[in-house]
Amino acid sequence: MSPYAGAGVEPKLRVYKKNGDRLAEVTALAPGFRGGLNVATGDFNNDGKIEIAVVPAASGGPQVQVYKYDKGKLSLMTQFTAYSGNIRGGYNLVAGDTDANGYPSIVIAPSERTAGPEVRVFRYEKGKFNKKAAILAYGSGNRDGVNLTAVDMNRDGKDEVVAAPMNGKSNVRVYREENGKLNLLDWEMAYGSSFAGGVNLSSGDVNADRKGEIVLTPAHSGGPNLLIYRLNDRNQLEKVASKIVYSPSLRAGYKTAVGDLNDDGTEEIAIAPTAPQTSNVQVFTMVNNRLEKVKSFMAYASNFRGGVNLAIGGR
User: Fold this and answer.
1) CA gap 298, 308 in Å, rounded
2) Strand pairing partners for 256?
3) What is the pLDDT of residues 164-219, one digit of tens each?
4) Which pLDDT tens digit goes with each residue over 116-162?
5) Pairwise CA distance, residues 166 & 152, whole Å
6) H-helix segments, 73-215
């Protein structure tokens, strides 16, 4: 497990055992940086060990650092500049095997309004990360920020790259890496043309069909409408399920996480509102293309309104 710092504090990256014992920590990026961190994990150099990629969450440069854990220490394996050095802001990143070579690449995009919506794929080869593909996910003047996920939606061995605006229209786009390019497979205005609150993304195999689905929720000021999409046999986005998971009057953003919580071979979906709403976490499973609630609990005190982030890991 790798907790990482939020905004306003020293950028500490820590590694813990499952039982909560701390294994190691390191100050990422720079000691004086206070913009928070975003991370992605994967075996980026195909050595059989998991590395941790780190970028600024806000107010930083386009520097990507990759750390490895060995012999009780976190050490910097490599670092690179993903965009022009004069672009200041935050970045989102995910790990995905976008070329079916058996190990993941780093997929990155700007998360703040200071940069355009260019998604880039970097792959570790011959001792360094090289840019292998890129796409302007939206118009060059767009400054809404880009949310990302990566999952194999059609069982072709490649993880598709899924992009959605962090703010603005709910234009969800699915890309496949081919011959050094990210090619658009399909797109969907998931919440209609009038909604402008952005979209949060997660992904996983939520119906046990051995294909990945994408899980969508409003990022800001939306109703509690949880959507599940898949790619059909024509590589077109197709809505599998939807559900109003809280009171329809609850207007907020929502975060989700996907994972097999009960070891039944099907991945469940956990959802929670962001600030300033309740900390009520709900868990759903797919049954015959319907979302059915299996659990609900308060993550914090009943009067807590700080928002909830979610992650599901192995036990």
Assistant:
1) 10
2) 271
3) 999 999 999 999 999 999 999 999 999 999 999 999 999 999 999 999 999 999 99
4) 899 999 999 989 999 999 999 999 899 999 999 999 999 999 999 99
5) 22
6) none
> Cα–Cα distance between 120 and 118 in angstroms, integer?
6
Distance of alpha carbon 20 from its chain centroid, rounded? 24
Residue 216's contacts (CB-CB under 8 Å, 6 or more residues apart) are 164, 170, 172, 190, 191, 199, 200, 201, 226, 227, 228, 229
**Which residues, 6+ apart, have CB-to-CB distance to 231 below 8 Å?**
153, 154, 160, 174, 185, 186, 211, 237, 238
Handedness of CA 105, 213, 164, 270 (dihedral sign): negative
Q: How many helices (H) and strands (E) does the chain have?
A: 0, 22
User: In whole angstroms, what is the distance from residue 119 CA to residue 106 CA?
Assistant: 10
Of all residues in the chain, what percent are helix, strand and coil, respectively (each to 5)? 0, 50, 50
Chain center to CA of 78: 22
152, with CB counted inside 10 A (0-12, 13-18, 19+), is buried
Q: How many CB atoms lie within 10 A of CB 305?
A: 12
Q: What does the alpha-carbon distance between residue 121 and residue 173 come to, in Å, rounded to a whole number? A: 16
Q: For residue 178, give both structure tokens.
A: 């081919």
Contact 40, 50 (CB under 8 A): no
